[in-house]
Amino acid sequence: MGLIECKGICKRFGEKVALDNLSVDIPKGKIFGLLGPNGAGKTTLIRIINRITIPNSGEVLFDGRPITQSDVEKIGYLPEERGLYRKMEVGDQAMYLAQLKGMSAAAARKELKQWFVRFGIQDWWKKKVEELSKGMAQKVQFITTVVHKPSLMILDEPFSGFDPVNAELIRKEILRLNEEGSTIILSTHNMESVEELCDDIALLNKSKLVVTGGVDEIRRHYGNNNIELIYTGEQPVEGTEGVFKVLSDENNVGRHTAVLSLEPGVSSNDVLGSLLSEGVLINSFKELIPRMNDIFIKLVTEEA
Fold first, then answer.
1. Could you tell me the pTM of the whole model?
2. Above 70 in pLDDT, residue 304?
3. Edge to edge, what strands does the sheet with 226-232 contain?
């Protein structure tokens, strides 16, 4: 059972269908990637989970029961459209948002001070929000999203606008929070982040669910059963009938990099055995698994 279970969610805005009978489970304690091109329905689903908008049909379960407004207090939501009050001081803004999530003033101040030190922004407490750069403001909003230790965090493009140093800081905090037990929904177009961080994903396109499952499982499923072989020798390897074909072979002063295509039903061990029996001097032998970026493009393009 997932922490969040979306069952048959449909949402229309006038004639536009934003979500079409969408069902997806978000496992407890995992980092879950919510993927899709612009307009696929990701933000609508996030808003429904947060009870900002209500579906036309279907239901959302939180920990096995229909989600309520009190459950929303256990959610930390970082929207893609950032929203801090520009005229407020940073500390006052952070305190206000923390107390909206049910924290006492004393607990909020203690936790916020610790977060500000961790992020190296302890000198910003009295600054006005309008004095901050976009990246600085995003640090503050990330802190206010997670300070109340929510059991579910929904982060919509959390790396947007950050330089590489601060993006790495946020990445490490996401992993740390997950290790401490938080379930995290990560909505992003950055497929590299998906591969690094996510355990499971759901890919939406044109209001429908295209694929869902474990990242490694999906990458292997959409693989082409190809092998990269690096070997040393004067002569290129030749394909073996019924075992493999050679798709390409680049020779760099006797060091070859080849791509082999396995025949249906053939295992990597079969290919390796065939090569060794031919006396090939193997330097490296690995399965070529497609990147999430390639799978994203393939699935979205096929659905176009």
1. 0.85
2. no
3. 244-252, 255-262, 226-232, 281-288
Q: Where are the chain's structural domains? A: 4-220, 224-288
* Interstrand relation of 65-66 and 16-26 (parallel, antiparallel or unpaired): unpaired
Helix (H) or strand (E) run with residue 273 in it: helix 268-277
**CATH number of the structural domain 224-288:** 3.30.70
The tokens describing 160, both together, are: 């947007």
Residue 243 C-alpha from the chain's centroid: 37
Rounded to whole angstroms, how far apart are CA atoms 283 and 290?
Answer: 22
The secondary structure of 16-35, three-state, reads: EEEEEEEEEEECCCCEEEEE
pLDDT, tens only, 195-235: 999 999 999 999 999 999 999 999 988 888 899 999 998 88
- Print burial letters for 241-274: b (CB count within 10 Å at least 16), e (below 16): eebbeeeeeeeeeeebebbbbbeeebeeebbeeb
Six token digits for residue 211: 């694929």
**CA atoms of 296 and 202, how far apart (whole Å):** 11
The superfamily CATH assigns to domain 4-220 is P-loop containing nucleotide triphosphate hydrolases (3.40.50.300)
How far, in Å, CA of 157 to CA of 174, rounded?
Answer: 13
Length of the chain: 304
Q: How far apart are the two ends of the chain, measured CA to CA in Å?
A: 33
Strands of the sheet containing 65-66, edge to edge, are: 16-26, 4-13, 57-62, 65-66
